[in-house]
Structures are given as C-alpha cells and as structure tokens.
What we know:
- This protein is α+β, with helices and mostly antiparallel strands.
- It has a single domain, classed as Gcn5-related N-acetyltransferase (GNAT) (Aminopeptidase, 3-Layer(aba) Sandwich).
- Helices cover about 35% and strands about 25% of the residues.
- It contains four helices and five strands; from the N terminus they run βααβββαβα.
- It has a five-stranded mixed β-sheet with strand order 1-2-3-4-5, with helices on both faces.
- β4, α3 (about 95-110) and β5 (about 115-120) form a beta-alpha-beta unit.
- α1 (about 10-20) packs antiparallel against α2 (about 35-50).
- The longest helix is centred in the first third of the chain and has 17 residues, at about 35-50.
Amino acid sequence: xxxxxxxxxxxxxxxxxxxxxxxxxxxxxxxxxxxxxxxxxxxxxxxxxxxxxxxxxxxxxxxxxxxxxxxxxxxxxxxxxxxxxxxxxxxxxxxxxxxxxxxxxxxxxxxxxxxxxxxxxxxxxxxxxxxxxxxxxxxxxxxxxxxxxx
Length: 150
C-alpha cells in the first residue's frame, strides 16, 4: 500500500471511484438536484483538488500503483488544514483503508508543521462520524442546512 500525492494521470480513475459514492450527501436528499450533476460536482471537486484549484492538494492510497482511496486537503494560516473530500473505492470499503489514508495524511501534515486539521461531514453519515471519532477528532459544532425551492 502506497500513500502519495495524486497526479494528473490519476484524475480519471479517482473520478471513477467517486461515482455514486456520496450517498449521504445532502444534495441526494433534495429531489430538485439532478443526480448526474451531483456526480459531476464531486468529480470536478476531485479534479480541482488534484490540480490545486479548489482544495490545495489531493492524496491517494494505491495498491499496485492503482488508487483505491483519496483525500483532498486545504491549507490555511497558522498551520491549520481541512479535509475536503475523502473516498474509498467500493471494492475496498470496510477494510480500514480510510483510516490508513488519514493516518498517513496526519504524518504528512505533522512533517510540514501543521498543528490542526478539521473535517465536515453530513449528520446522517454515521460511518464517517464513527471513523473520525475513533481516530481522535472531536465534534466542535453541529449545523443544520435546509433547502427550499421557490
């Protein structure tokens, strides 16, 4: 298993991993959002993360040089950072790859002198919440987001 920065040549494979992955997204629970456009939104997010246009970087976890998981990250002042998007290929879910990905990310950030990392997830995404809490994240804020179409 290799943890590395994602490269341009990874983009198409990372997009493939993300397809229909975010089932707990608030957008999927609002019937006014087009499902195809939701997938495109996440695919674009990944591409921008790899290219440094939205999040600053994207990292991937590879098996035989093939990405099986990814994570985008943004950097801020005072050596703080924030996870943007994280995903694990369906074939590798439930096998601790997300935890392995995040632990490698923590080591990377520590070596770059970062002192704080945050992440936001959906309230209905219990798997993500459980993972983050198991590896030491603490809940600092809960918010509700509403959509109303007029």
